[in-house]
Structures are given as C-alpha cells and as structure tokens.
Specification:
Chain A has 228 residues and is of the alpha+beta class. Helix content of chain A is 55%, strand content 10%. Chain A has a four-stranded antiparallel beta sheet with strand order 2-3-1-4, with helices on one face. Chain B has ten helices and no strands. The chains are: A alpha+beta (228), B mainly alpha (186).
Chain lengths: 228, 186
Amino acid sequence: MNMLNKEPERFDIEALLPWHAAGTLSRRDADRVEQALASDRELQRRYALVREEFAETIHLNESLGAPSSRAMEKLFAAIDAEEARAPRRRASFDLAGRISEFLASFTPRTLAWSATAAAVAIVVQAAVITTVVVKDRGAPGTIGLAGKSQHVDGSYVVVSFVPQATVAEITKFLGAHKATVVEAPTRTPLGGYRIKLSDTKLPDDEVTRIAKQMQDESKIVSFIALQP
Amino acid sequence: MQATSDEVLIGRIANGDRLAMQVLFARHHVRVFRFVVRLVRNETTAEDLISEVFLDVWRQADRFEGRSAVTTWLLSIARFKALSALRRRPEEELDEETAGAIEDPSDDPEVALEKKDKGAIIRKCLTGLSAEHREIIDLVYYHEKSVEEVAEIVGIPENTVKTRMFYARKKLAELLKAAGIERGWP
C-alpha cells in the first residue's frame, strides 16, 4: 500500500531521505526515517532511488579530477606578497593553541581534576610571590612588581611558571635573564606573569631568542607568550 | 594518532603559520575545486578561484569564530567567489557553455542507453541540471552537508533547502525519463 502523500508526516520523512543516505541527519531524525522505512515498502523503493543518485553524484564528482599545482603556487605567491607588504604579528610558538590541543586529548573528568589541582597550586604560588614582592620591590633579578600596569618602553613577555617551581628557583631564573616581574597573573590576559626583559625596546629577534631560552627551562616555565 | 583538527589549523593560520595553511590546503583543496568547477564549469577559472578562497582564509582566519565547520566556511567562501566570477563572465561565454560545453566523461544519454549503462545516464543528467540544482545535490550528496549547513552555505532557510532538494531530484527524474529511464517517481 502506498501510504506516501496521505500523511504530511510521511512527506516530511521522504524529504529527509537524501540526508539519511549521506548520514548527515540528527540521531532523532535518523531514527524517524529508519522507523518509517521499516514499515513502508514504497518508501524503501524511493530510498533506493536516492541511494542510486547519491552513488552517481559521488562518481561524477570524483571523475572531475584535481587542480594542478598552479593553484597552490599562486596561493603561496600571494601570501608571500602580502607578508612582504605587511608582515602580520604572530605569537612566537602559538603555545595557547598547542596547549588547547593537548588538553583536548584528556577526558573532561581528568581535565577537571587537573585544572583544580593546577589552580590551587597557582594560587599558592601567587600568594608566595606576592608576599616576597611586598618585602623586596623592583630590583632586577628579584621578584618585584612595578607599580604601573602600562608599559610603553622596554621589552616584555608573559610567563607562566610550573606549579612545582619554588620561589628560589623563580628568583634565580629571573636573575639569570636579568628580568623583573611587572604584572601579576590576575591582570594579564593570558594568566601569566608579565615580566620585563629590558628597559629599552629590544629587536623582535632578540626577544624571541630570550623567550626560547626561557622556554627551554621547562622545570620552571610552563609557557611563554611574546608581548608587544 | 589523531590528525590536527581544522579548527586548530585555523588558529595556527591566524598566527601566520604557513605550514598549517599548507595542511589545510592539502586537506580540502580538491573538494573545494570540485565544488567550484561544477558551478563555473571551467577548470582554469576554478583553479584561480580556489587560490582566492584559501587566500581569504589566510586573511580572515583570526575572524573565524568556530560556529560552523571549517569546510562549511570554505564552501561558503567558494560559492561567493564562483557566483562573482559567473557574474563577471561575458554572456556569450555562458551561452556557449550552457549549450553543452560541459566537460563530462560520460557518454551521451543515447549512447549510454545503448550500452545499458544506467549510471552513466544518471551522471549525464546530473550535469544537465541548472546551477542551483547541481549545487544543492553536490552539497548534500558529495560534500555531505546537513540541512543546516546547506542553509548556511547557500543563504536560504532550512525548509527551502529541503524543498529545493526535492525539486532538484524531481528535475533529475524528468531528465532521466527524457533519456529513456522511467523510475516511477515522482
């Protein structure tokens, strides 16, 4: 018995058949289609037509071939030309993106526990550092917060320390790089300490070199981001 | 090992990572090319357009908000570029192509019918659809786009997507009937 067109519901189902064949329906709609197909032979016949069209559309598109290497060459020539005209500012290692990618591989439960543990460690670390700051302000190589949050001159990076890093290790690290903490994590967009590398503006290459050296100290540093 | 997601690649491209751009291009350029070539029906034009599509990605990656899949975004840009190119093309060139200059490896329907190659006839009739109908059939069947994604790419309501797909299939059935294949639908 042909039940199609007698009920609007069946017409709606038939309209979904192309997406059912392609597997792009929501679970709910896919279940509706499956149920209708199970009890309606005419719908099954029409679904077979859809699958035939589906297969031939793929066949047709696959026979279209691929573009030549000219397309890629043209694209990267255009990108080179744009970069030569106006180089874009880029984050040195795209650490935020890579950390996000790394974290995405954990289950939500693992991530939640890790985040909680890290947050507690960071709060403790921040409290200790702030305590030291009160006692000892400003000298290069020590953990001192400068009073201003706006920094026009000089070169800066944002550093996040690993939770296990001790104050002594951080002090030594800053001294080795002649750096000074100038802003607390709560006031920086990336949630790390903003540190001053130099009172004068260093060339970008030099800042990148120093940042890479710092990044190598993975027992103390968890991430570094360049700052303008 | 899990491949880097398109969304992560876009984040890296926003930071000027050329390697990420190469990976994204390698991953999607063939499908984007096929989508465009089905619309403009000219391989040279399609090659130029896909360069422009990916150049737009390079320029606009920092504005990608991730509300839709990267492939949906790519096809939206590609569609816009293809339609703009078609509007720029001289009318006589369009007429020539519409008259049958479609590059298609299939035989003519009559020849295919003689060979009893039903698949070849269907493919030939698929190329004979209007650009609007070709587009929606390709998006649904080949590019595996959902109703919502097609609506976003084409810029029409979701109900219109379903209706347009229905009429595209109906037109295909008429072309098949004219070519000697009666399918008993619609």
